Protein backbone atom coordinates (compact mmCIF):
# COMPACT_ATOMS: atom_id res chain seq x y z
CA UNK A 1 0.00 0.00 0.00
CA UNK A 2 1.23 3.43 -0.92
CA UNK A 3 1.82 5.34 2.42
CA UNK A 4 1.06 8.62 0.84
CA UNK A 5 -2.33 7.30 -0.25
CA UNK A 6 -3.22 5.94 3.18
CA UNK A 7 -6.43 7.43 4.64
CA UNK A 8 -4.66 7.77 7.95
CA UNK A 9 -2.42 10.45 6.55
CA UNK A 10 -5.46 12.77 6.35
CA UNK A 11 -6.42 12.26 9.95
CA UNK A 12 -3.55 13.53 11.95
CA UNK A 13 -5.87 14.57 14.68
CA UNK A 14 -6.85 11.11 15.47
CA UNK A 15 -4.31 9.39 17.77
CA UNK A 16 -5.41 6.03 16.81
CA UNK A 17 -5.15 6.95 13.33
CA UNK A 18 -1.79 8.48 14.10
CA UNK A 19 -0.72 5.40 15.87
CA UNK A 20 -2.04 3.27 13.16
CA UNK A 21 -0.14 5.45 10.74
CA UNK A 22 3.02 5.16 12.66
CA UNK A 23 2.61 1.47 13.09
CA UNK A 24 1.91 1.37 9.47
CA UNK A 25 5.03 3.38 8.83
CA UNK A 26 6.97 1.03 11.06
CA UNK A 27 5.63 -1.93 9.24
CA UNK A 28 6.45 -0.33 6.00
CA UNK A 29 10.01 0.35 7.13
CA UNK A 30 10.37 -3.12 8.45
CA UNK A 31 9.01 -4.55 5.22
CA UNK A 32 11.42 -2.46 3.21
CA UNK A 33 14.29 -3.69 5.33
CA UNK A 34 12.99 -7.17 4.96
CA UNK A 35 12.78 -6.86 1.25
CA UNK A 36 16.14 -5.18 1.19
CA UNK A 37 17.49 -8.02 3.19
CA UNK A 38 15.88 -10.42 0.84
CA UNK A 39 17.34 -8.53 -2.06
CA UNK A 40 20.77 -8.68 -0.47
CA UNK A 41 20.39 -12.35 0.23
CA UNK A 42 19.20 -12.87 -3.32
CA UNK A 43 22.20 -10.98 -4.59
CA UNK A 44 24.51 -13.01 -2.37
CA UNK A 45 22.89 -16.22 -3.44
CA UNK A 46 23.05 -15.06 -7.04
CA UNK A 47 26.72 -14.27 -6.56
CA UNK A 48 27.23 -17.66 -4.99
CA UNK A 49 25.27 -19.25 -7.78
CA UNK A 50 27.37 -17.43 -10.31
CA UNK A 51 30.53 -18.57 -8.53
CA UNK A 52 29.18 -22.09 -8.33
CA UNK A 53 28.24 -21.90 -11.99
CA UNK A 54 31.71 -20.59 -12.81
CA UNK A 55 33.31 -23.40 -10.83
CA UNK A 56 30.94 -25.86 -12.41
CA UNK A 57 31.73 -24.41 -15.81
CA UNK A 58 35.47 -24.69 -15.17
CA UNK A 59 35.04 -28.20 -13.85
CA UNK A 60 32.85 -29.04 -16.82
CA UNK A 61 35.40 -27.52 -19.19
CA UNK A 62 38.13 -29.51 -17.48
CA UNK A 63 36.05 -32.68 -17.66
CA UNK A 64 35.21 -31.90 -21.30
CA UNK A 65 38.92 -31.34 -22.08
CA UNK A 66 39.87 -34.54 -20.30
CA UNK A 67 37.11 -36.33 -22.16
CA UNK A 68 38.33 -34.84 -25.45
CA UNK A 69 41.89 -35.95 -24.74
CA UNK A 70 40.62 -39.36 -23.79
CA UNK A 71 38.60 -39.45 -27.01
CA UNK A 72 41.62 -38.46 -29.08
CA UNK A 73 43.77 -41.06 -27.38
CA UNK A 74 41.14 -43.71 -27.97
CA UNK A 75 40.85 -42.63 -31.61
CA UNK A 76 44.63 -42.78 -31.96
CA UNK A 77 44.61 -46.26 -30.41
CA UNK A 78 41.79 -47.27 -32.73
CA UNK A 79 43.68 -45.85 -35.74
CA UNK A 80 46.88 -47.56 -34.67
CA UNK A 81 45.04 -50.81 -34.23
CA UNK A 82 43.40 -50.33 -37.62
CA UNK A 83 46.78 -49.69 -39.26
CA UNK A 84 48.28 -52.67 -37.46
CA UNK A 85 45.46 -54.87 -38.64
CA UNK A 86 45.77 -53.42 -42.17
CA UNK A 87 49.53 -54.01 -42.19
CA UNK A 88 49.07 -57.51 -40.89
CA UNK A 89 46.44 -58.11 -43.55
CA UNK A 90 48.82 -56.75 -46.21
CA UNK A 91 51.60 -58.96 -44.85
CA UNK A 92 49.29 -61.93 -45.02
CA UNK A 93 48.34 -61.00 -48.57
CA UNK A 94 52.03 -60.52 -49.51
CA UNK A 95 52.99 -63.80 -47.85
CA UNK A 96 50.24 -65.62 -49.69
CA UNK A 97 51.30 -63.93 -52.94
CA UNK A 98 54.95 -64.86 -52.33
CA UNK A 99 53.99 -68.41 -51.48
CA UNK A 100 52.02 -68.56 -54.68
CA UNK A 101 54.96 -67.15 -56.65
CA UNK A 102 57.33 -69.62 -55.00
CA UNK A 103 55.00 -72.44 -55.85
CA UNK A 104 54.74 -71.22 -59.45
CA UNK A 105 58.53 -70.83 -59.64
CA UNK A 106 59.06 -74.28 -58.20
CA UNK A 107 56.54 -75.65 -60.66
CA UNK A 108 58.37 -73.92 -63.56
CA UNK A 109 61.69 -75.26 -62.34
CA UNK A 110 60.28 -78.74 -62.10
CA UNK A 111 58.84 -78.35 -65.57
CA UNK A 112 62.16 -77.02 -66.93
CA UNK A 113 64.02 -79.83 -65.21
CA UNK A 114 61.66 -82.34 -66.73
CA UNK A 115 62.07 -80.71 -70.15
CA UNK A 116 65.85 -80.66 -69.75
CA UNK A 117 65.82 -84.28 -68.68
CA UNK A 118 63.62 -85.16 -71.61
CA UNK A 119 65.90 -83.19 -73.95
CA UNK A 120 68.97 -84.86 -72.48
CA UNK A 121 67.44 -88.27 -72.96
CA UNK A 122 66.56 -87.30 -76.50
CA UNK A 123 70.11 -86.04 -77.11
CA UNK A 124 71.49 -89.26 -75.68
CA UNK A 125 69.20 -91.22 -77.92
CA UNK A 126 70.22 -89.18 -80.96
CA UNK A 127 73.88 -89.38 -79.94
CA UNK A 128 73.57 -93.15 -79.63
CA UNK A 129 72.05 -93.25 -83.10
CA UNK A 130 74.82 -91.01 -84.46
CA UNK A 131 77.48 -93.12 -82.77
CA UNK A 132 76.00 -96.22 -84.27
CA UNK A 133 75.87 -94.56 -87.68
CA UNK A 134 79.41 -93.24 -87.26
CA UNK A 135 80.72 -96.63 -86.18
CA UNK A 136 79.09 -98.17 -89.21
CA UNK A 137 80.55 -95.44 -91.43
CA UNK A 138 83.95 -95.83 -89.77
CA UNK A 139 83.88 -99.54 -90.37
CA UNK A 140 83.08 -98.96 -94.02
CA UNK A 141 85.75 -96.27 -94.23
CA UNK A 142 88.29 -98.51 -92.48
CA UNK A 143 87.55 -101.30 -94.90
CA UNK A 144 87.93 -98.88 -97.80
CA UNK A 145 91.16 -97.46 -96.37
CA UNK A 146 92.45 -100.97 -95.77
CA UNK A 147 91.84 -101.78 -99.42
CA UNK A 148 93.52 -98.54 -100.47
CA UNK A 149 96.44 -99.24 -98.14
CA UNK A 150 96.92 -102.66 -99.61
CA UNK A 151 96.99 -101.10 -103.08
CA UNK A 152 99.35 -98.36 -101.90
CA UNK A 153 101.58 -100.91 -100.20
CA UNK A 154 101.79 -102.94 -103.36
CA UNK A 155 102.61 -99.80 -105.34
CA UNK A 156 105.21 -98.82 -102.74
CA UNK A 157 106.84 -102.24 -102.94
CA UNK A 158 107.03 -101.98 -106.71
CA UNK A 159 108.54 -98.49 -106.47
CA UNK A 160 111.04 -99.58 -103.84
CA UNK A 161 112.08 -102.57 -105.90
CA UNK A 162 112.58 -100.28 -108.91
CA UNK A 163 114.59 -97.87 -106.73
CA UNK A 164 116.64 -100.77 -105.41
CA UNK A 165 117.46 -101.91 -108.91
CA UNK A 166 118.48 -98.38 -109.85
CA UNK A 167 120.80 -98.09 -106.86
CA UNK A 168 122.27 -101.52 -107.57
CA UNK A 169 123.10 -100.24 -111.02
CA UNK A 170 124.79 -97.24 -109.42
CA UNK A 171 126.83 -99.53 -107.18
CA UNK A 172 128.01 -101.60 -110.11
CA UNK A 173 128.91 -98.56 -112.21
CA UNK A 174 132.62 -98.40 -113.06
CA UNK A 175 133.12 -94.81 -112.01
CA UNK A 176 131.26 -91.73 -110.94
CA UNK A 177 130.86 -88.76 -113.20
CA UNK A 178 133.56 -86.29 -112.33
CA UNK A 179 132.94 -82.59 -112.08
CA UNK A 180 134.78 -80.37 -114.61
CA UNK A 181 135.11 -77.30 -112.42
CA UNK A 182 136.69 -76.95 -109.01
CA UNK A 183 134.23 -76.73 -106.14
CA UNK A 184 133.95 -73.81 -103.80
CA UNK A 185 134.62 -76.25 -100.98
CA UNK A 186 136.13 -79.69 -101.45
CA UNK A 187 135.49 -81.93 -98.43
CA UNK A 188 136.35 -85.61 -98.29
CA UNK A 189 133.83 -87.76 -100.15
CA UNK A 190 133.01 -91.41 -99.90
CA UNK A 191 130.83 -93.67 -101.99
CA UNK A 192 127.25 -93.65 -100.66
CA UNK A 193 125.96 -97.01 -99.50
CA UNK A 194 122.20 -97.04 -98.87
CA UNK A 195 119.51 -99.63 -99.44
CA UNK A 196 115.92 -98.68 -100.17
CA UNK A 197 114.59 -102.23 -100.01
CA UNK A 198 111.76 -102.98 -97.67
CA UNK A 199 113.03 -103.70 -94.16
CA UNK A 200 111.12 -106.46 -92.40
CA UNK A 201 110.71 -106.36 -88.63
CA UNK A 202 111.87 -109.94 -88.31
CA UNK A 203 115.08 -109.24 -90.24
CA UNK A 204 118.12 -107.90 -88.33
CA UNK A 205 118.70 -104.34 -89.44
CA UNK A 206 121.46 -103.08 -87.18
CA UNK A 207 125.15 -103.57 -86.89
CA UNK A 208 125.43 -104.31 -90.63
CA UNK A 209 127.99 -102.68 -92.94
CA UNK A 210 125.19 -100.85 -94.77
CA UNK A 211 124.01 -99.20 -91.54
CA UNK A 212 127.51 -98.14 -90.56
CA UNK A 213 128.39 -96.89 -94.04
CA UNK A 214 125.15 -94.97 -94.35
CA UNK A 215 125.63 -93.32 -90.96
CA UNK A 216 129.21 -92.44 -91.80
CA UNK A 217 128.13 -90.93 -95.11
CA UNK A 218 125.67 -88.61 -93.39
CA UNK A 219 128.29 -87.60 -90.84
CA UNK A 220 130.50 -86.63 -93.78
CA UNK A 221 127.66 -84.55 -95.23
CA UNK A 222 127.25 -82.84 -91.88
CA UNK A 223 130.97 -82.05 -91.77
CA UNK A 224 130.81 -80.74 -95.33
CA UNK A 225 127.99 -78.41 -94.33
CA UNK A 226 130.16 -77.03 -91.54
CA UNK A 227 132.93 -76.39 -94.03
CA UNK A 228 130.44 -74.74 -96.38
CA UNK A 229 129.35 -72.40 -93.62
CA UNK A 230 132.96 -71.50 -92.80
CA UNK A 231 133.78 -70.97 -96.46
CA UNK A 232 130.84 -68.63 -97.03
CA UNK A 233 131.68 -66.75 -93.85
CA UNK A 234 135.19 -66.22 -95.18
CA UNK A 235 133.81 -64.96 -98.48
CA UNK A 236 131.36 -62.74 -96.60
CA UNK A 237 134.26 -61.07 -94.82
CA UNK A 238 135.44 -59.84 -98.25
CA UNK A 239 131.97 -59.30 -99.73
CA UNK A 240 129.74 -57.14 -97.48
CA UNK A 241 126.72 -57.67 -99.74
CA UNK A 242 126.99 -61.45 -99.40
CA UNK A 243 127.56 -61.13 -95.64
CA UNK A 244 124.44 -58.95 -95.18
CA UNK A 245 122.33 -61.29 -97.32
CA UNK A 246 123.45 -64.33 -95.34
CA UNK A 247 122.80 -62.59 -92.01
CA UNK A 248 119.32 -61.36 -92.98
CA UNK A 249 118.29 -64.72 -94.41
CA UNK A 250 119.59 -66.59 -91.38
CA UNK A 251 117.63 -64.40 -88.98
CA UNK A 252 114.42 -64.55 -91.03
CA UNK A 253 114.61 -68.34 -91.37
CA UNK A 254 115.01 -68.81 -87.63
CA UNK A 255 112.16 -66.39 -86.95
CA UNK A 256 109.81 -68.21 -89.34
CA UNK A 257 110.64 -71.62 -87.90
CA UNK A 258 109.98 -70.24 -84.42
CA UNK A 259 106.49 -69.15 -85.56
CA UNK A 260 105.38 -72.69 -86.45
CA UNK A 261 102.56 -73.81 -84.14
CA UNK A 262 100.40 -76.89 -83.64
CA UNK A 263 96.82 -77.52 -82.63
CA UNK A 264 93.34 -77.54 -84.07
CA UNK A 265 92.70 -74.49 -86.21
CA UNK A 266 96.40 -73.58 -86.39
CA UNK A 267 97.56 -72.34 -89.78
CA UNK A 268 101.28 -72.31 -90.58
CA UNK A 269 100.77 -70.96 -94.08
CA UNK A 270 102.34 -67.56 -93.39
CA UNK A 271 105.67 -68.76 -91.95
CA UNK A 272 105.85 -71.48 -94.61
CA UNK A 273 105.28 -68.97 -97.42
CA UNK A 274 107.84 -66.62 -95.88
CA UNK A 275 110.38 -69.44 -95.82
CA UNK A 276 109.68 -70.26 -99.46
CA UNK A 277 110.23 -66.63 -100.47
CA UNK A 278 113.53 -66.43 -98.60
CA UNK A 279 114.80 -69.67 -100.11
CA UNK A 280 113.70 -68.63 -103.61
CA UNK A 281 115.89 -65.55 -103.31
CA UNK A 282 118.78 -67.77 -102.27
CA UNK A 283 118.10 -70.22 -105.12
CA UNK A 284 118.31 -67.45 -107.72
CA UNK A 285 121.73 -66.25 -106.49
CA UNK A 286 124.17 -67.05 -109.31
CA UNK A 287 127.28 -66.78 -107.17
CA UNK A 288 128.86 -68.39 -105.34
CA UNK A 289 128.29 -71.88 -106.78
CA UNK A 290 128.85 -75.22 -105.01
CA UNK A 291 129.27 -78.86 -106.01
CA UNK A 292 125.86 -80.21 -104.92
CA UNK A 293 126.53 -84.01 -105.09
CA UNK A 294 128.90 -83.64 -102.14
CA UNK A 295 125.82 -83.05 -99.97
CA UNK A 296 123.77 -85.98 -101.24
CA UNK A 297 123.89 -89.41 -99.62
CA UNK A 298 123.34 -91.15 -102.96
CA UNK A 299 123.95 -88.76 -105.85
CA UNK A 300 123.25 -89.89 -109.43
CA UNK A 301 126.24 -90.76 -111.56
CA UNK A 302 124.85 -89.34 -114.79
CA UNK A 303 123.82 -85.82 -113.69
CA UNK A 304 124.74 -83.15 -116.21
CA UNK A 305 126.17 -80.24 -114.27
CA UNK A 306 126.89 -80.62 -110.61
CA UNK A 307 126.88 -76.98 -109.60
CA UNK A 308 124.20 -75.22 -107.67
CA UNK A 309 123.57 -72.15 -105.52
CA UNK A 310 125.81 -72.20 -102.46
CA UNK A 311 123.55 -69.62 -100.81
CA UNK A 312 120.54 -71.94 -101.23
CA UNK A 313 122.41 -74.83 -99.66
CA UNK A 314 123.54 -72.53 -96.86
CA UNK A 315 119.95 -71.41 -96.18
CA UNK A 316 118.64 -74.98 -96.31
CA UNK A 317 121.32 -75.89 -93.78
CA UNK A 318 120.20 -73.01 -91.51
CA UNK A 319 116.58 -74.11 -91.94
CA UNK A 320 117.43 -77.75 -91.13
CA UNK A 321 119.36 -76.70 -88.04
CA UNK A 322 116.45 -74.52 -86.86
CA UNK A 323 113.97 -77.37 -87.40
CA UNK A 324 116.15 -79.79 -85.42
CA UNK A 325 116.50 -77.24 -82.61
CA UNK A 326 112.70 -76.89 -82.52
CA UNK A 327 112.37 -80.67 -82.35
CA UNK A 328 114.62 -80.63 -79.30
CA UNK A 329 113.32 -77.57 -77.46
CA UNK A 330 109.59 -77.69 -78.27
CA UNK A 331 108.74 -81.21 -79.38
CA UNK A 332 110.68 -82.76 -76.50
CA UNK A 333 108.26 -81.59 -73.80
CA UNK A 334 105.36 -81.26 -76.27
CA UNK A 335 105.65 -83.99 -78.96
CA UNK A 336 102.46 -82.99 -80.79
CA UNK A 337 104.19 -80.02 -82.43
CA UNK A 338 106.65 -82.39 -84.12
CA UNK A 339 104.08 -83.25 -86.78
CA UNK A 340 103.56 -79.57 -87.65
CA UNK A 341 107.32 -78.98 -87.81
CA UNK A 342 107.76 -82.10 -89.92
CA UNK A 343 105.02 -80.96 -92.30
CA UNK A 344 106.74 -77.62 -92.94
CA UNK A 345 110.14 -79.31 -93.29
CA UNK A 346 108.78 -81.86 -95.76
CA UNK A 347 107.06 -79.12 -97.75
CA UNK A 348 110.21 -76.99 -98.03
CA UNK A 349 112.39 -79.86 -99.25
CA UNK A 350 109.67 -80.89 -101.72
CA UNK A 351 109.52 -77.52 -103.50
CA UNK A 352 110.80 -77.98 -107.04
CA UNK A 353 112.80 -74.71 -106.96
CA UNK A 354 114.89 -76.12 -104.13
CA UNK A 355 115.68 -79.43 -105.86
CA UNK A 356 118.79 -80.26 -107.79
CA UNK A 357 118.17 -82.20 -111.00
CA UNK A 358 114.76 -83.05 -109.49
CA UNK A 359 116.50 -84.56 -106.44
CA UNK A 360 115.45 -83.25 -103.04
CA UNK A 361 118.20 -81.82 -100.85
CA UNK A 362 116.58 -83.23 -97.70
CA UNK A 363 119.83 -85.10 -96.96
CA UNK A 364 120.92 -81.78 -95.43
CA UNK A 365 118.27 -82.25 -92.75
CA UNK A 366 118.74 -86.02 -92.40
CA UNK A 367 122.47 -85.49 -91.82
CA UNK A 368 121.65 -83.38 -88.76
CA UNK A 369 119.24 -86.07 -87.55
CA UNK A 370 122.05 -88.65 -87.86
CA UNK A 371 124.25 -86.48 -85.65
CA UNK A 372 121.65 -85.65 -83.00
CA UNK A 373 119.62 -88.90 -82.91
CA UNK A 374 121.73 -91.76 -84.36
CA UNK A 375 119.69 -94.41 -82.57
CA UNK A 376 116.85 -94.19 -85.11
CA UNK A 377 119.30 -95.05 -87.89
CA UNK A 378 120.43 -98.33 -86.34
CA UNK A 379 123.32 -97.06 -84.21
CA UNK A 380 123.49 -98.53 -80.70
CA UNK A 381 125.94 -98.90 -77.84
CA UNK A 382 126.36 -99.58 -74.14
CA UNK A 383 124.55 -96.81 -72.29
CA UNK A 384 126.76 -97.36 -69.26
CA UNK A 385 129.94 -96.28 -71.06
CA UNK A 386 131.08 -92.92 -72.36
CA UNK A 387 131.56 -94.22 -75.89
CA UNK A 388 128.20 -96.00 -75.83
CA UNK A 389 126.39 -92.88 -74.68
CA UNK A 390 127.99 -90.83 -77.42
CA UNK A 391 126.94 -93.39 -80.03
CA UNK A 392 123.35 -93.22 -78.71
CA UNK A 393 123.19 -89.43 -79.00
CA UNK A 394 123.98 -88.36 -75.46
CA UNK A 395 125.62 -84.93 -75.28
CA UNK A 396 127.64 -83.22 -72.57
CA UNK A 397 126.74 -80.03 -70.78
CA UNK A 398 130.19 -78.67 -71.59
CA UNK A 399 133.02 -79.95 -73.72
CA UNK A 400 134.83 -81.39 -70.72
CA UNK A 401 131.81 -81.58 -68.44
CA UNK A 402 129.43 -84.40 -67.51
CA UNK A 403 126.66 -85.75 -69.73
CA UNK A 404 123.26 -84.09 -69.56
CA UNK A 405 120.72 -85.58 -67.17
CA UNK A 406 118.68 -88.62 -68.13
CA UNK A 407 115.49 -86.54 -68.21
CA UNK A 408 117.04 -83.98 -70.57
CA UNK A 409 118.42 -86.73 -72.82
CA UNK A 410 115.04 -88.47 -72.99
CA UNK A 411 113.33 -85.18 -73.85
CA UNK A 412 115.82 -84.65 -76.68
CA UNK A 413 115.27 -88.15 -78.04
CA UNK A 414 111.50 -87.75 -77.75
CA UNK A 415 111.47 -84.52 -79.76
CA UNK A 416 113.88 -85.75 -82.41
CA UNK A 417 112.19 -89.14 -82.85
CA UNK A 418 108.73 -87.59 -83.05
CA UNK A 419 110.15 -85.07 -85.53
CA UNK A 420 111.57 -87.87 -87.69
CA UNK A 421 108.12 -89.47 -87.78
CA UNK A 422 106.61 -86.08 -88.64
CA UNK A 423 108.95 -85.81 -91.65
CA UNK A 424 108.72 -89.38 -92.96
CA UNK A 425 104.98 -90.04 -92.52
CA UNK A 426 103.63 -87.58 -95.07
CA UNK A 427 101.05 -88.45 -97.72
CA UNK A 428 101.83 -86.93 -101.14
CA UNK A 429 99.27 -88.84 -103.19
CA UNK A 430 97.32 -85.66 -104.02
CA UNK A 431 100.30 -83.31 -104.01
CA UNK A 432 101.83 -81.83 -107.14
CA UNK A 433 105.32 -82.23 -105.72
CA UNK A 434 107.27 -85.40 -104.98
CA UNK A 435 107.67 -86.72 -101.46
CA UNK A 436 111.24 -85.83 -100.41
CA UNK A 437 111.39 -88.55 -97.75
CA UNK A 438 108.88 -91.39 -98.35
CA UNK A 439 107.36 -93.55 -95.63
CA UNK A 440 109.66 -96.51 -96.16
CA UNK A 441 112.33 -94.53 -94.28
CA UNK A 442 110.04 -94.61 -91.25
CA UNK A 443 109.54 -98.35 -91.62
CA UNK A 444 113.27 -98.86 -91.90
CA UNK A 445 113.87 -96.78 -88.75
CA UNK A 446 111.43 -98.72 -86.54
CA UNK A 447 112.83 -101.96 -87.92
CA UNK A 448 116.34 -100.90 -86.92
CA UNK A 449 115.18 -99.80 -83.47
CA UNK A 450 113.29 -103.05 -82.96
CA UNK A 451 115.94 -105.44 -84.23
CA UNK A 452 118.74 -104.26 -81.96
CA UNK A 453 120.52 -107.27 -80.37
CA UNK A 454 119.20 -108.02 -76.87
CA UNK A 455 122.38 -106.79 -75.21
CA UNK A 456 122.16 -103.52 -77.17
CA UNK A 457 118.62 -102.52 -76.21
CA UNK A 458 118.62 -99.37 -74.05
CA UNK A 459 116.03 -97.05 -72.61
CA UNK A 460 116.87 -94.65 -75.44
CA UNK A 461 115.46 -97.20 -77.91
CA UNK A 462 112.17 -97.41 -76.02
CA UNK A 463 111.92 -93.62 -75.75
CA UNK A 464 112.51 -93.24 -79.49
CA UNK A 465 109.95 -95.94 -80.39
CA UNK A 466 107.31 -94.41 -78.10
CA UNK A 467 107.81 -90.95 -79.64
CA UNK A 468 107.66 -92.35 -83.19
CA UNK A 469 104.37 -94.18 -82.50
CA UNK A 470 102.32 -92.05 -80.11
CA UNK A 471 100.20 -89.66 -82.16
CA UNK A 472 101.10 -91.36 -85.44
CA UNK A 473 99.02 -94.55 -85.06
CA UNK A 474 96.50 -93.57 -87.73
CA UNK A 475 99.25 -92.73 -90.22
CA UNK A 476 101.02 -96.02 -89.51
CA UNK A 477 97.83 -97.93 -90.33
CA UNK A 478 97.18 -95.68 -93.34
CA UNK A 479 100.60 -96.30 -94.89
CA UNK A 480 101.28 -99.88 -93.85
CA UNK A 481 97.86 -101.46 -93.22
CA UNK A 482 97.95 -104.92 -91.62
CA UNK A 483 101.74 -104.86 -91.62
CA UNK A 484 101.61 -101.68 -89.55
CA UNK A 485 99.18 -103.27 -87.12
CA UNK A 486 101.48 -106.27 -86.77
CA UNK A 487 104.42 -103.93 -86.21
CA UNK A 488 102.56 -102.10 -83.43
CA UNK A 489 101.69 -105.39 -81.76
CA UNK A 490 105.30 -106.54 -81.99
CA UNK A 491 106.80 -103.27 -80.73
CA UNK A 492 104.32 -102.51 -77.93
CA UNK A 493 103.71 -106.02 -76.63
CA UNK A 494 106.45 -108.43 -77.63
CA UNK A 495 109.49 -106.15 -77.46
CA UNK A 496 108.97 -104.97 -73.83
CA UNK A 497 108.35 -108.58 -72.75
CA UNK A 498 111.67 -109.87 -74.07
CA UNK A 499 113.68 -106.82 -72.96
CA UNK A 500 115.15 -106.08 -69.52
CA UNK A 501 112.65 -104.22 -67.30
CA UNK A 502 113.04 -100.45 -67.32
CA UNK A 503 110.83 -97.37 -66.85
CA UNK A 504 111.10 -96.56 -70.55
CA UNK A 505 110.06 -100.09 -71.56
CA UNK A 506 107.08 -99.81 -69.22
CA UNK A 507 106.07 -96.50 -70.80
CA UNK A 508 106.27 -98.04 -74.26
CA UNK A 509 104.10 -100.98 -73.20
CA UNK A 510 101.63 -98.51 -71.66
CA UNK A 511 100.72 -97.30 -75.16
CA UNK A 512 98.65 -100.47 -75.56
CA UNK A 513 96.09 -99.16 -73.05
CA UNK A 514 96.31 -95.65 -74.50
CA UNK A 515 95.50 -96.90 -78.00
CA UNK A 516 92.63 -98.99 -76.69
CA UNK A 517 91.06 -96.09 -74.74
CA UNK A 518 91.75 -93.15 -77.04
CA UNK A 519 91.89 -94.75 -80.49
CA UNK A 520 89.69 -97.81 -79.89
CA UNK A 521 92.57 -99.82 -81.39
CA UNK A 522 92.86 -103.32 -80.01
CA UNK A 523 96.26 -104.95 -80.31
TrEMBL record:
Coiled-coil residue windows: 71-152
A GO cellular component annotation in the UniProt record: nuclear pore cytoplasmic filaments
One Pfam family named in its UniProt record: GLE1
Keyword RNA-binding among record annotations: no
TM annotation in the entry: none
Localization per record: Nucleus, Nuclear pore complex
GO molecular function: inositol hexakisphosphate binding; phospholipid binding; translation initiation factor binding
Alphabetically ordered keywords of this record: Coiled coil, mRNA transport, Nuclear pore complex, Nucleus, Protein transport, Translocation, Transport
Main localization of the protein described in the UniProt heading: nucleus
Gene Ontology biological process terms from the UniProt entry: poly(A)+ mRNA export from nucleus; protein transport
Assigned protein family: Belongs to the GLE1 family.
Protein name as annotated: mRNA export factor GLE1
Organismal lineage: Eukaryota, Fungi, Dikarya, Ascomycota, Pezizomycotina
Amino acid sequence: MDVMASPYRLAPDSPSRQLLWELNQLAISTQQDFYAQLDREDEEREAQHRQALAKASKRHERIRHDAEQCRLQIERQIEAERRRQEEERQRDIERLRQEQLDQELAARKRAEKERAKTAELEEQRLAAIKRAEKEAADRLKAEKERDELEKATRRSIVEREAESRRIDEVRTAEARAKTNAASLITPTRSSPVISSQTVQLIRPATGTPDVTAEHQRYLEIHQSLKELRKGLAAQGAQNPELKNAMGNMRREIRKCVGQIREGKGTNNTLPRQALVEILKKAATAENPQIDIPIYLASPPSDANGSKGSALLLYCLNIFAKAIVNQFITEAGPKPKIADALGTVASHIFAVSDFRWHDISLIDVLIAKMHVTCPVIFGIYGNEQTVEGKQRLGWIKEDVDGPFISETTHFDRMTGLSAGFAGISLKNYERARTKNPYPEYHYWKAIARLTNVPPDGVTQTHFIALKAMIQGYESKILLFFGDAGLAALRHILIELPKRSPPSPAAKQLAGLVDVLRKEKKLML
